[in-house]
Amino acid sequence: MNDVDSTAERALGDLVRPGSRVAVADACGLPYVLTGPLSRVAARAGGVRLVLGWIPGPAPDLDPDAFADIRTVVGGPGARGLIESRAAHRVPARLSAVPALLAGPLRPDLLLATVVEHPDGYRFGAESSWMRGLAEDGVPVAAVVARDAPGAEGGAPLPDVTVLGETEGRPFTVDTPPPTEADRRIAERVAPLVPAGARIQFGPGRLATALVAALDVGVHVDSGLLADPVVDLAERGLLLGTPSATALHGSRRLYDWADGRTEQGVVRPIEYTHDLSRLSTAPSPLIALNTALEIDVHGQVNVEGVAGSAAGMIGGHPDFAAAAARGPGLSVIALASEHRGRPTLVERLGGPVTTPSHDVDVVVTDRGSADLRGLGREERERALAALWRGAVGANE
């Protein structure tokens, strides 16, 4: 047990009561160093309930047996084992609804987080997400101070922080493999859909890297997660204004670039980043560039997992798709036509419907594209079938 472990465990022993509910901050600033001490304190206290957000990587020191109940309101790769083993319940919620859940039925008594010290106080660093709203609504924050984390959150200093220790490491980093040839073909077809001056939303991953690389016009970035491609845009002179996202998700290169951008705030709360009214009515059109695990013949999208897996998460997928479809922008679903030799267009989804068909405007694959706007149900089915047959510009 290191010094942070022992100090944090003693302090948490005074903060965590039997039967209390504790939330652990999410994204790449998740306080992994606190999961072990929290588990030990919870086991002794008894009846402690745990709320998890987005977990980007495994938390090996988190003991699920120490808690009476575990719920995740987002999910993520690090939560996959907990969900698939049924140690945790995944609460189905679009990201814009998470603050309401945490202010109501899942309101925690304590929030554990990572913070960054500024001359005027403490702020979150690589994320703001749902945590900022809880802190400002009076939920106490117990945190570790990250000495080597980026300070990218705007807003006022947090009102009530109990410091449990300090850490030197950077936030959890994510390395993205290079795009495939299929990714590049998809990106070449998506790029013409993005007009100069538009706002784009994209997630992390190979395809997002290819999509951004294919752009040759200046764009704003208004997204849920901010990944490394935003740095590529900045270096190419194509990034307009200050990007906005609820969390950083990438490599040290991204964190170095975002560090110190607190005046306007690169990372902001969900209440701002996923506000459908703001997203759909801003002066420049929103082009939502989302991916999918699979899409059915009706145009319904699944990003959460197939055959019982918990590979994905709802996140902001339905929020940005709905906002783009209801405004002057465009809701684009981009995916490879096959995955491991099987078509990604299916008769029946192998998992839940994450985003409904009426919030999908254009579907793009490595074989072509289908513009579904203005089509009836049967026409949409024919357009999607033609697309998977390889017709470029599949509307017939």
Description of the structure:
This is Acyl-CoA hydrolase. Residues 155-180 are annotated as: Disordered. Keywords: Hydrolase. Residues 250-385 form the Acetyl-CoA hydrolase/transferase C-terminal domain. GO terms for molecular function: acetate CoA-transferase activity; hydrolase activity. The protein is of the alpha/beta class. It has 2 domains: 3-167, 3-Layer(aba) Sandwich (Glutaconate Coenzyme A-transferase); 181-250 and 275-389, Glutaconate Coenzyme A-transferase, CATH 3.40.1080. The protein contains 13 helices and 21 strands. The chain has helices at 3-15, 35-45, 80-84, 98-103, 131-136, 181-190, 206-214, 229-235, 252-258, 270-273, 276-281, 317-326, 377-389, and strands spanning 21-24, 49-54, 69-75, 89-90, 110-118, 121-124, 141-146, 161-167, 199-202, 220-221, 225-226, 247-248, 286-290, 294-296, 301-302, 330-334, 338-339, 342-343, 345-346, 362-365, 368-371. Strands 1, 2, 3, 4, 5, 6, 7 and 8 form an 8-stranded mixed beta sheet that branches. Strands 10-9-13-16-20-21 form a 6-stranded mixed beta sheet, sandwiched between helices. The N and C termini lie far apart (66 Å). The mean pLDDT is 93.
Summarize the helices and strands and which ones pair or pack.
Elements (H helix, E strand, L loop, with lengths): L2 H13 L5 E4 L10 H11 L3 E6 L14 E7 L4 H5 L4 E2 L7 H6 L6 E9 L2 E4 L6 H6 L4 E6 L14 E7 L13 H10 L8 E4 L3 H9 L5 E2 L3 E2 L2 H7 L11 E2 L3 H7 L11 H4 L2 H6 L4 E5 L3 E3 L4 E2 L14 H10 L3 E5 L3 E2 L2 E2 L1 E2 L15 E4 L2 E4 L5 H13 L7
Parallel strand pairs: 1-2, 1-5, 2-3, 3-4, 5-7, 7-8, 9-10, 9-13, 11-12, 13-16, 14-19, 16-20
Antiparallel strand pairs: 5-6, 14-15, 17-18, 20-21
